[in-house]
Design brief:
heterodimer, A: mainly beta, 4-stranded antiparallel β-sheet, B: mainly beta, 7-stranded mixed β-sheet, globular
Chain lengths: ~120, ~120
């Protein structure tokens, strides 16, 4: 069984400040990790993913996340946030189909990032 | 590429009626689609896995007779909420795995269901 813990339900920050959204996971098999962003009344958009290779992954809009196997973490960071980054961020884990799970995703409860001027 | 659409985006219905929500993969084929439910300010909970050509697989606690899933073709899955009640009001989101990587899912924009 897999689980995802997002430690912070809400993170308020000021514009241009750095931010870190924390995500920890548990799984008995190898995992694939994702961060999704959700704007109000919209579906989810993939922000970045770790499937294999380099443990540091980056998005096109300045976010990055680092897969840390020993700490079972996949924290999301951005050095300088914009007001437009205000949204709900979900961390998710997939076991890649092993154990007959059919690639289904398990989501954390989400972190609401609010960027204030 | 890899666009998933949902229809309708919003629906309001009376208690006791049935509502059908469509999920389409617009530019790729999807033998598997996933249906999620999201309550306000909460995370997505997987309801069921829709399989083209076979029965859907429901998660524990999800009533299969209430949430009917039909994967009619390689680009269409439907979720029918039967005899809807106010507690069924929620945001329903579907997703489909990509062709290049089954580990990457593409999400529809969601359907807001309100049952009066």
């Amino acid at each position: 069984a897999q689980s995802v813990t997002q430690l912070d339900s809400q993170v308020p920050v000021f514009e241009e400040a750095p931010v870190e959204l924390r995500c920890n996971y548990s799984s008995s098999v190898s995992v694939y990790l994702f961060w999704y962003v959700q704007y109000p009344n919209q579906g989810l958009q993939l922000l970045l993913k770790y499937l294999s290779g380099s443990t540091l992954v980056e998005s096109i809009n300045g976010f990055e996340a680092e897969f840390n196997k020993s700490q079972t973490s996949f924290h999301l960071r951005k050095p300088s946030v914009h007001i437009s980054d205000t949204a709900e961020y979900f961390c998710a884990v997939s076991d890649g189909g092993s154990g007959g799970s059919n690639y289904k995703l398990t989501f954390g409860k989400g972190t609401l990032l609010t960027v204030n001027p | 590429g890899a666009v998933v659409s949902q229809h309708p985006s919003r629906v309001i219905c009376k208690s006791g009626t049935s509502v059908k929500i469509e999920c389409r993969s617009l530019d790729f084929q999807a033998t598997t689609m996933f249906w999620y439910r999201q309550f306000p300010k909460q995370s997505l909970m997987l309801m069921a896995t829709s399989n083209e050509g076979s029965k859907a697989t429901y998660e524990q606690g999800v009533e299969k007779d209430k949430f009917l899933i039909n994967h009619a073709s390689l680009t269409l899955s439907t979720l029918t909420v039967t005899s809807a009640h106010p507690e069924d009001s929620s945001f329903y989101i579907c997703s489909a795995p990509g062709l290049l990587s089954y580990n990457e899912q593409f999400f529809g924009p969601g359907t807001r269901l309100t049952v009066l």
